[in-house]
């Protein structure tokens, strides 16, 4: 494989998809060597088959708002690769959603799911519908209209969606309800469901907790204790909230959270009581993070990201490309020695280069945030055997999976000088399993 040529071909065939090109470029640059050790891969043109999604569904979603106006949005499902199991991945509702973003997410998901050790392929879906400011009724009608189209493409053994940005327990509930009505079965073809109807304990917590478990493994390699460390977190949604919860319980000091309008800086640290306020603010009142600063009298910076604040550890948990080269240099200049990604692809290629050059502990999202989809996989297992495991059991399995992912990254990413390049480790480990599964199943 010539990574540059593969990439330029993809750019020519799929122009105007910068996020997709970015995700593919990162993976290709790190797997090229491992790939070329297997000449049979090229004979079967494995790389193109792995980069281009198996199929993509797109459809119009029509719904009626509270004023009686008829609204349209676009809906998509990208089924990227099912070599190791049913397509699996979240649904994103955000005004920015387009095919470039969903193709990058589905591509990343394929490698991430491979790393989890569970039998799941990769997919992603979503809509350019923005839940911001919508009433509960509007959200429900939109979810129903979305699934009225999507349902025929998914199923417990074909494709199992879940949440992502703009899609949490409420939206999964509405979508699953509609799915069951259409498909006339009860096998749990969505994860992140409510506990009363097949959801798994710890699924809401899993991405944030898992990211902290991964961070602890990285810190262990340098004998660093999390206690007392200052952490900058971005985002204030599902992933950020449970990242902060776990960090607080371990004695770390979280000084920032954010939303798409700005960030708060609390030098005293966000404690359990203040975090409870954030849960209420974001999950019940659906307010803005600015209100935290007003309530607790701390700094709020409009229109900025938190990376200029001095911290030991950064845990980006909002969205893609939220740490650019300048942000990375600011973090490093302030002494930040670990970055563990809750979001998918939050660091730009330039930022990643800075982190690797500085040889800090840097965990890419496909390794560090794999806890969410891992517990989704455990939810699928519980649904299949029609049992529910305890919180302790699911949490123990989550910890073990994050430990195993870390071990795989170390195995495939340790350089001659001993530095662990987790980007390379995660990409090579994730890739090899999918590649071998594809080879064994013939040219499809
Ligand atoms: P939520 O919708 O619960 O929260 C998203 C948070 O990020 C909100 O605070 C939101 O602010 C902020 N945000 C979203 N878009 C932007 C943007 N364009 N610029 C700045 N801030 C933004 O989503 P999740 O917490 O579930 O997802 C966060 C990240 O984690 C995403 O990258 C997602 O792909 C990834 N992820 C999620 C998993 C899960 O299980 N949910 C699993 C693995 C990864 P606002 O409220 O203003 O929109
Ligand atoms: O990016 C992700 O891994 C998710 N949004 C979770 C996917 C899932 O199927 O639980």
Provide a descriptive summary of the structure in words.
The chain has two domains: 3-186, Leucine Dehydrogenase, chain A, domain 1 (Rossmann fold); 206-363, 3-Layer(aba) Sandwich (Rossmann fold), CATH 3.40.50.720. It has helices at 3-13, 18-36, 39-43, 46-51, 99-115, 136-150, 169-183, 203-220, 238-249, 272-283, 290-296, 325-333, 349-358, 365-368, 371-385, 391-413, 422-440; strands at 55-64, 70-81, 87-93, 122-127, 159-162, 230-233, 253-259, 262-265, 299-302, 313-315, 338-340, 361-363. Helix 12 (325-333) packs parallel to helix 13 (349-358), helix 15 crosses helix 16 and helix 16 (391-413) packs across helix 17 (422-440). It is α/β, with parallel strands linked by helices. It is globular, with a radius of gyration of 21 Å. The protein contains 17 helices and twelve strands. The mean pLDDT is 98. Helix content is 49%, strand content 15%. The strands form two sheets. A seven-stranded mixed beta sheet has the order 9-8-7-6-10-11-12, sandwiched between helices. Strands 1-2-4-3-5 form a five-stranded mixed beta sheet. The protein starts with a helix and ends with a helix. The structure holds NADPH dihydro-nicotinamide-adenine-dinucleotide phosphate and (2Z)-2-iminopentanedioic acid (2IT). (2Z)-2-iminopentanedioic acid binds at residues 88-90, 109, 112, 162, 164, 191, 344, 372-373, 376.
């Amino acid at each position: 494989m010539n990574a540059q040529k593969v990439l330029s071909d993809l750019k020519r065939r799929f122009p105007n998809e910068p996020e997709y090109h970015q995700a593919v470029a990162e993976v290709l640059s790190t797997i090229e060597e491992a790939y070329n050790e297997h000449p049979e891969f090229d004979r079967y043109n494995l790389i193109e088959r792995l980069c281009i999604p198996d199929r993509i569904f797109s459809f119009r979603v029509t719904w009626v708002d509270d004023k009686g106006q008829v609204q349209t949005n676009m809906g998509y499902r990208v089924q990227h690769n099912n070599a190791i199991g049913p397509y699996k991945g979240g649904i994103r509702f955000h005004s920015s959603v387009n095919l470039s973003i969903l193709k990058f997410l589905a591509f990343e998901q394929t490698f991430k799911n491979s790393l989890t050790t569970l039998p799941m392929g990769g997919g992603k879906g979503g809509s350019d519908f923005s839940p911001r400011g919508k009433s509960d009724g509007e959200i429900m009608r939109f979810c129903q209209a979305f699934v009225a189209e999507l349902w025929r493409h998914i199923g417990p053994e074909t494709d199992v969606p879940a949440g992502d940005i703009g899609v949490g327990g409420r939206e999964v509930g509405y979508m699953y309800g509609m799915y069951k009505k259409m498909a006339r079965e009860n096998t749990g073809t969505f994860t992140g469901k409510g506990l009363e109807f097949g959801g798994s304990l710890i699924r809401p917590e899993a991405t944030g907790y898992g990211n902290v478990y991964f961070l602890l493994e990285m810190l262990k390699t340098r004998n660093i204790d999390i206690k007392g460390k200052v952490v900058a977190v971005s985002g204030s949604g599902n992933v950020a909230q449970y990242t902060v919860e776990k960090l607080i319980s371990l004695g770390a000091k979280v000084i920032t959270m954010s939303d798409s309008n700005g960030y708060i800086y609390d030098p005293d640290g966000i404690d359990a009581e203040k975090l409870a306020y954030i849960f209420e603010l974001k999950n019940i009142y659906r307010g803005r993070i600015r209100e935290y600063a007003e309530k607790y009298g701390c700094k709020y910076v409009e229109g900025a990201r938190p990376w200029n604040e001095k911290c030991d550890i950064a845990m980006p948990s909002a969205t893609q490309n939220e740490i650019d080269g300048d942000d990375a240099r600011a973090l490093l200049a302030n002494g930040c020695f670990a970055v563990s990604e809750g979001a998918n692809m939050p660091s730009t290629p330039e930022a990643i280069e800075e982190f690797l050059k500085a040889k800090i502990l840097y965990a890419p999202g496909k390794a560090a945030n794999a806890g969410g989809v891992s517990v989704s996989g455990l939810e699928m297992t519980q649904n299949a055997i029609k049992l529910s495991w305890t919180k302790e059991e699911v949490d123990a399995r989550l910890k073990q999976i994050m430990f195993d992912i870390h071990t795989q990254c170390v195995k495939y990413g340790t350089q001659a000088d001993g530095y662990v390049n987790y980007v390379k480790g995660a990409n090579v480990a994730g890739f090899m399993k999918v590649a071998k599964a594809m080879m064994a199943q013939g040219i499809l």
